[in-house]
Amino acid sequence: MFQSQDIRVSHAEKKQRSGYRILLVDDDEDLLYISQKFIERYEGFVVDTVSSAQKGLEKLKLYSYDVIALQCHV
Hints:
With about 70 residues, the chain is α/β, with parallel strands linked by helices. It has 3 helices and 3 strands; from the N terminus they run H-E-H-E-H-E.
């Protein structure tokens, strides 16, 4: 059976996992701001936000991202 002590993470392990870079792309700047602040509450996350796909592509030329989240209109 799974027990809570199985998911405890030491400070050293957190440091090894830190440094995740996330790119959020959305035309709603209020949503970008709230999302960025929510994610950055956790140690080890760097969040970049842009309001267009073109700006997102420009960011990709500068940085490597672990996660890219974007709004798609279908």
